[in-house]
């Protein structure tokens, strides 16, 4: 009787380990980027919506390159969202109080993607806190929209261009 229980526990442990190993084999990253501009002369401490162009996903080819297809993708999460000031070259994020980024498609409602509040940075790069939202339907779409809401803590004297690098973790189903 004791041997049966031990055997069952060993088999269950192997199944659990095997499932996580299969998930690792079927997990890959997709990277996208977009840019937005924070205009000069904005009043500080008031939110500003920065327009970004639609982001083309190329998801179908990304899925194919990773030996899967759109129907087998079961989970997509944002793993990293990094902002980098591209212009002016010597500008840092010291002007920024908060930033919130949202994702949407024509067929799907807008949800928050990443954010950072109480920013106290003197660097020209900034890693945002990613939400744990499921992003499958957004990444499976041919394109998506990013809306950026920023609040400044000082008045900018020149417009600032910011690049957003997004890295999504994709897990596909084997069947």
Provide an overview of this structure.
By secondary structure, the protein is of the alpha+beta class. Helix content is 21%, strand content 43%. The chain has three helices and ten strands. The strands form two sheets. Strands 2, 3, 5, 6, 8 and 9 form a six-stranded antiparallel β-sheet that branches. Strands 1-10-4-7 form a four-stranded antiparallel β-sheet. The chain is elongated, with a radius of gyration of 21 Å. 21% of the residues are buried.
Topology:
Layout: H1 2-25, E1 27-38, E2 47-50, E3 55-56, H2 59-65, E4 73-87, E5 96-104, E6 111-116, E7 125-127, E8 129-130, H3 136-140, E9 143-152, E10 160-172
Antiparallel strand pairs: 1-10, 2-9, 3-9, 4-7, 4-10, 5-6, 5-9, 6-8
Q: What is the residue-averaged pLDDT?
A: 85
How many beta-strand runs?
Answer: 10
Which range does the strand content fall in? 35-45%
Q: Poorly predicted ranges (pLDDT <50, ≥5 residues)?
A: 17-25
Distance between the termini: 36 Å
Which secondary-structure class do the elements indicate? Answer: alpha+beta
Query: Helix proportion of residues, in percent?
Result: 10-25%
- Can you write the helix and strand succession as a string? HEEEHEEEEEHEE
Rg over alpha carbons = 21 Å
User: Main sheet, how many strands, which sense, barrel?
Assistant: 6 strands, antiparallel
Assembly of the depicted chains: single chain
Count of helical segments? 3
Overall body shape:
elongated
């Amino acid at each position: 009787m004791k041997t049966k229980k031990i055997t069952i526990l060993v088999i269950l442990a192997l199944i659990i380990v095997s499932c996580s190993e299969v998930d690792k084999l079927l997990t890959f990253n997709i990277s996208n980027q977009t840019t937005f501009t924070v205009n000069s002369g904005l009043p500080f401490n008031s939110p500003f919506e920065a327009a970004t162009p639609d982001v083309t996903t190329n998801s179908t080819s990304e899925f194919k390159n990773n030996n899967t297809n759109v129907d087998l993708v079961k989970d997509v999460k944002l793993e990293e969202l990094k902002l980098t000031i591209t212009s002016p070259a010597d500008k840092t994020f010291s002007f920024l109080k908060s930033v919130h980024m949202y994702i949407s498609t024509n067929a799907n409602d807008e949800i928050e993607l990443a954010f950072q509040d109480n920013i106290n940075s003197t660097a020209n790069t900034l890693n945002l806190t990613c939400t744990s939202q499921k992003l499958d339907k957004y990444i499976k779409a041919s394109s998506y929209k990013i809306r950026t809401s920023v609040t400044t803590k000082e008045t900018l004297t020149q417009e600032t261009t910011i690049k957003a690098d997004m890295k999504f973790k994709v897990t596909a189903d084997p069947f």
